[in-house]
C-alpha cells in the first residue's frame, strides 16, 4: 500500500493562488499546508510555465 497523498485540483489551485496572492515563499506556504516544498514548487511551476503563462484560478 502506498503512503502517497492525493490532492484535488482545487487544493492545488488554492495552494498556488495562496503563494501568488500572499507574497509569501513557497516554503512558508508549504509548511503551513503540511506539504513538501518541492511538491508546491512543482505545482507553481506547472501553473505558470506549463500552462503558457499565469493562470487565473
Automatic annotation (TrEMBL):
The keyword Repeat does not apply. The keyword Transmembrane helix does not apply. InterPro entries: Homeodomain-like_sf, Transposase_8. One of its GO terms (molecular function) is transposase activity. It comes from the Bacteria. GO terms for biological process: DNA transposition. Keywords: Plasmid. It holds the Pfam family HTH_Tnp_1. This is Transposase. It comes from Corynebacterium occultum.
